[in-house]
Amino acid sequence: MTEPDADAAAVGEPPSPVVAPATRARHLATDAPPRDEQEPHEREPQGDQEPAQPAGAAPPPDPWARPVPPFVSPSDVPADERSTETRLLERLLGRRRLQLDLRVRDRFWGWFGTLVVTLVAAAARLWQLGQPQTLVFDETYYVKDAFTLGELGFEGQWPKEPNPAFESGDVFTFLEKASYVVHPPVGKWMIWLGMEAGGGATSAFAWRLASAVVGILAVFLLVRIARRLFSSSLMGVLAGLLLAVDGEAIVHSRVALLDQFLMLWVLVAFGCLVMDREQARRRLAARVGSILDAGGTVARYGPRLGFRWWRLAAGVSLGLACGTKWSGLWFVAVFGILTVLWDLAARRAAGVGRWWEDSLVVDAVPAFVTIVPTALVVYVASWWSWFTHQGAYLRQWAADNPGAGVTWLPDPLRSLVEYHRQMWDFHTGLSSEHGYAAHPLGWIVQWRPTSFFWEKDAPGTGGCPADAADACARAVTSLGNPLLWLLAALAIVATVWLGVRLRDWRALAVLSGTVAGWLPWFAYAPPFSDRTIFTFYSIVFTPWVVLTLLYPMVVALERTEDRPGRGRTVAVITVVVAMIVAVSVVFYPLWSGMQVPYPYWQSVMRLESWI
User: What is the pLDDT of residues 177-220, one digit of tens each?
Assistant: First the structure.
């Protein structure tokens, strides 16, 4: 079916599970609304007063229960009732999702709110983007690699101590000799595009322009994804606002590191799969409805859903993610499992008798074939410049080493495989002392952030006022909003509990990015390994941290709709969001390289582990 609009993602309300019929098709189309949309059976008691119950009366219904209404077959439905397809859609997507785009108010606030928070993100990321005018942290690698990639077609070597000349505008001191680099080229190509659009490599603003654009785009996408995920324009806007003001997101939008681009491509892939979920369920409702209306049955197997273009787009995005950093592979695995689980649940909810077998054959296998080979092809294609330039690093390895490596491959691919073997050895063997190395356990509360830049100037030097009472400091610290991340850490526990209790697909969705972007790093940390890793890697799953923080709020709003306690819920959410924004205002100078009095820097950096 045709999609109702062109948002970057589409999802709905969690479907209630259904009991598959034992005989012919009695499938899950029903007029009974989901439990959270029904009127409560009992009036909620006021204060601590317990409601009176007659002796021997049945206990009140569990407010968390999501009972399965029986299916009403087409032959049992009055002629003036809604169609089988409509009733299936309500089960598969939920009424909130189906009604979301029907209300003018929701559409207006959805787009107006998107515009406002995107502008907030743009202001936070573009203001004085060229400050500091020096290469900070790993910009020393990626900016110069990106520049030579555009100039030579491969990453070139530089003479000793090239940064002072490069920062002063003398950018052509590179050597026309290939350099050994350990990350794929996609992120560096994006940095190069930003430099070209921003006026060239002589400008620090241009070095970081691509990162800033990606950061702004990520906020826009998260609003649209969260709006559909939670079936709420308000919660979509709040998701975008929290990402717009988070420190990890701001800092990585203002420096030219690769992790920002990895975050974008996995977020795009997630949005594509969420869109695929809705499109597949619309197709399933239409085709199952047609079968039932024609007197047929899906008591054993359901219909095929045709080619899934959104899944193909997700495969392309995941290939570009892996082409930025290899850690994108974890998202391929987690998102692949996620989309298959969604299909299993959809066929079960649609009343398909052998839903697990049906989904594995007609959904899971095509999902693998669509996503994994596509990602692989896109990844290999991202090395196009390496293939076309004979001077690239190890490009001639196969010719120089006949009979070595994977001999059945063509020489260019054999050389590329050898290059990847060396890259693998580097990544798995990387173990060196670094002052800002951090165990993943602390990432979720930003315990040991990474300092990208820090400078202290005496009064009268470096722009510090001569009459200043104390020295001045400038810092770019990759530290997420401490309050946001602390609350999100607590929200992870709540989300796991709620997801199990409510059997809510949204809980798994909001946790998926954190699972893919965070948990695998524990295998590279003590006691399993001593690889050098940093907290700033958490930017990759920051959008899912925001979604996880919002999920318990969404559940609370849904559970108090038209019930006592609604006002308190709204007030708590408002206070939490306001406090997070206030914390961001305080920390923003330390994220953006703004010069502040040294005592101010000391007062904000409260924890010793932050310094």
Answer: 999 999 999 999 999 999 999 999 999 999 999 999 999 999 99
Pairing of strands 450-457, 596-597: unpaired
CA neighbor of 209 nearest in space, from 254, 162, 266: 254
* The 3-state secondary structure of 541-594, one letter per residue: HHHHHHHHHHHHHHHHHHHCCCCCCHHHHHHHHHHHHHHHHHHHHHHHHHHHCC
Closest CA to 382 of 448, 464, 319: 319
270-298 tens-digit pLDDT: 999 999 999 999 999 999 999 999 999 99
Number of other CB atoms surrounding residue 203 within 10 Å: 16
Q: Which of 257, 251, 246, 141 is nearest to 194 (CA)?
A: 257
Q: Provide the pairing of β-strand 450-457 with 175-178.
A: unpaired
| CA–CA gap between residue 334 and residue 338 (Å, rounded) | 6
SS3 string, 138-177, reads CHHHHHHHHHHHHHHCCCEECCCCCHHHHHCCCCCCCEEE
pLDDT at 573: 97
Helix and strand numbers, DSSP H then E, in the chain:
22, 5
Could you tell me the pTM of the whole model?
0.86
Query: Which tokens go with 470?
Result: 């104390």
Backbone angles phi, psi at 282, to 5 degrees: -65, -40
Alpha-carbon gap, residue 497 to 503, rounded angstroms: 10
The DSSP output letter for 354 is T
